[in-house]
Amino acid sequence: MRMGWWWSATAFIALVAMAASGAIAQATKYADQPPLLVGAAWYPEQWPEPEWDHDLSLMEAAHIDVVRVGEFAWSTMEPSEGKYEFGWLDRAIALAAKHHICVVLGTPTAAPPAWMTTKYPETLRVDENGRRAEHGNRQQFSFTDPKYRQFAHDIAEQMAIHFGHNPNVVGWQLDNEYADPDFGPTARRQFHAWLEKKYGTVANVNQHWATAYWSQTYDSFDEIPLRAERENPALLLEWKRFVSETWKSYSLNQISAIRPHADPRQFITTNTMGWFDGFDEYTVHSVLDLAAWDDYISTDTYDWIDNGARHDLARGFKNKNFWVMETEPAFVNWRPTNTPLEKGQVRDMAWQAIGHGADVVEYWQWRSAPNGQEEYHGVLVGADGTPVPVYDEVRQIGEEFAKAGPEIAGTAPHSDVALVNDYDSRWAIDFQRHSAGFDPVKEMLAFYEPLRMRSQAVDVISIDAPLDGYKLVELPALNVLSQAAADKLMAYVRNGGHLVLGPRTGMKDEYNALYPERQPGPLAEFLGGRVDQFYALDQNVPLSGDWGAGTANVWAEQLSVRSPDTKVLMRYGKSNGWLDDQPAAISRQVGKGTITYIGAWIDPLLMEEMTKEALQQAGVQPIVRSAPAGVEVCQRSSADKSIVILINHNTNDEHVDLPGPMRDLIGNEGPVSRVNLPAYGVAVLEAQK
Ligand code: GAL
To answer: In this predicted structure, what is the pLDDT of residue 689?
Structure first.
């Protein structure tokens, strides 16, 4: 729960004293490293050694505190089988240390060397159409192949033996952006073994998958195909789970090589990709020390709501502060048109990351490689070794992190409201969208946006995360709902929690099979209502009620009420006959708690009203009441302090009246009660007693 506005002066003095002694590092476990870090991806192997010192001097001048190195350098680290060369990396790390820059080491397994893939072609992945990958790009490896796993283990182990106690190495990144699974013969065998372990007998598979349908009945596990689409939805869901478990064991293979040789302060993570749903992030993160993600804006222009939601998602992977392992220094090279962020937006994004719980922001990349597939990508320094214009903005960020870091150390975002993100449900909907526009991420964002605007703090969590402590929990479309999860949700409401369920919730069991009772399945009786029928929509359907009048589109469920104390909140107007005058949203009070079911994809204004009422009912207050639209409010707190970060995402000036005097940590020193923010302006404030 959020802390109050003020903190004690004694605690403040104690914290300042700790900061001065350097004892509260947060981004890392190394007390001599700053608590907030700015960093860059640096590829010393791409440049002649005599140029390194100049690069690192420019980094130091920009207050860059950390570099990530090595993640694609396999051919330089192991130029031939079993022959390891780490001397160059020793020297690069030592030189970085001289410039007060610490290092995250990447294991190079996303880019296997040509000698390996030539001699052992089985290490190359096979795609769904049976085609084996070739050398020359990256991520061409098979994540299941034992030979590849052995090579990956060996290089990780050799690196750990060599660098595990290097005081300038603060952590490890495994591989890079896990993505493509393998469909080769090894993957098939492992999938069958995994199914056998889970189901015990093939008869059990036949029963849960309802394989009598289209003559899918299996006599043995070997007969089960390997498909990622156009298959039985149960198989598709299990394939995704198998892929998630395989990435987890892929991580464990390297963790088991690194951990025994590494300083316990060195963290182990991998870098992930926002909404990407190729695997279940919660499964993969269960064996990692912290979450780290690569923040490239999702759309052509910076959508700060979507970006903030992805930060909150990453924070939820481990329910703690995280790293932005990569972000764009103004532009990328992989969109059709790679327009830049506007001047000021790189800083805006950096502080947004901190506001949502990042302790590190690293730019990809430091310097253009002399050749290779990414010659046009944004950088801080050109191939000529001199700064490009965005360098100055990053230097400003570096200065500000250095200045505000000691005060921000030890704080994290806290929220009274949670939004549930569930991979099983996202996959299940994507396998059978039924209405093309039903993109589960868009549906999440439709719930997230008004929640974020009004509460100013949202946790995005897994259905397995603890719910106590939240005043309001929303589940945008929890299509796959196990009995255990349903029990937990009912207990949450019985304990006084407020629960809002979105359309398509509670339709499937954990085998992706239809529940024998109507939606929301195991919650229907508790809700005192159910879904009588669902309809895909291609036009607006009117609806009105407690939240005013508006429309639904994409999806509408005809609800019915089965209990006298279940209230109808919204009804459809005249449309296709089936929906006319039927309930669209219903709610039931249970003790002090409530359960609300919304059966339609409702328009943003209705969503806004729904959210307003839900927050009011749950007693959730905003952090700063007077924030104008487009000014984002973030709060990080600890037991005794409260930091507020304000970011003006608008292109015009804005001002914010603060609820009390606050100390500006990156601007004027004195306490302020009103903050003026220019376009893309940022204020970092500490509550005053
Ligand atoms: C990331 C990747 C980096 C770099 C970057 C370019 O997805 O991890 O290595 O390619 O994209 O935007």
So the answer is: 61
Per-residue pLDDT, 24: 60
Cα separation, 248 vs 252, in Å, equals: 6
How many angstroms is it from 267 CA to the middle of ligand 1?
21
Strand order in the sheet with 169-173: 267-269, 169-173, 102-106, 66-69, 37-41, 358-363, 322-327, 292-295, 271-272
Phi-psi region of 385 (alpha: psi -120 to 50; beta: other; left: phi over 0): left
**In this predicted structure, what is the pLDDT of residue 520?**
98
Tokens at residue 462, please?
Answer: 């897994």
Per the CB < 8 A criterion, the answer to whether 40 and 71 are in contact is no
The predicted model scores a pTM of: 0.96
Q: What pLDDT, on the 0 to 100 scale, is given for residue 688?
A: 76
Which pLDDT does position 670 carry in this prediction? 77
Give the integer Cα–Cα distance in Å for 218 and 222. 9
Cα separation of 539 and 542, whole Å? 10
557 catalytic per annotation: no
For residue 648, the tally of other CB atoms under 10 A from its CB is 26
Mean pLDDT of the chain: 95
525 is catalytic: no
Which residues form the pocket of ligand 1, taking CB atoms under 6 Å from any ligand atom?
A: 176-177, 294, 296, 326, 332, 364, 374, 377
Look at the block and give the residue holding tokens 């490896």: 141
pLDDT, one tens digit per residue, over 61-89 is 999 999 999 999 999 999 999 999 999 99
Q: Whose CA is nearest to atom 4 of ligand 1?
A: 364
Q: Distance from the CA of 251 to the center of ligand 1, in angstroms? A: 20
* Number of CB atoms found within 10 A of residue 101's CB: 22
For residue 338, give the amino acid letter: N
Measured in angstroms, how far is the CA atom of residue 384 from the centroid of ligand 1?
21
Which regions in the chain score pLDDT beneath 50? 3-23
The C-alpha atoms of residue 352 and residue 341 are separated, in whole angstroms, by 14
Residue 182: the pLDDT is: 98
Catalytic residue among 326, 407, 449, 609: 326
- 489: region left, alpha or beta (phi > 0 left; psi from -120 to 50 alpha): alpha
Could you give the CA distance from residue 90 to residue 95 in angstroms, rounded to a whole number? 9
**Residue among 177, 281, 362, 400 flagged as catalytic:** 177
Angle between helices 390-408 and 9-20 (to 10 degrees): 120
Q: Whose CA is nearest to atom 5 of ligand 1?
A: 364
Which mutation among 326, 332, 333 tests ligand 1's pocket best, with the greatest number of atoms within 8 A of CB?
Answer: 326
Q: How far apart are the first and last CA of the chain?
A: 20
CA distance 490 to 487: 5
Which are the contacts of 520, defined by CB distance < 8 A and separation ≥ 6? 481, 501, 505, 506, 507, 527, 530, 531, 597
Exposed, middle or buried by CB within 10 Å (0-12, 13-18, 19+), for 12?
Answer: middle
Q: What is the phi-psi region of residue 554: left when phi exceeds 0, alpha when psi lies from -120 to 50, beta otherwise? A: left
CB-neighbour burial class of residue 215 (10 A; exposed 0-12, middle 13-18, buried 19+):
exposed
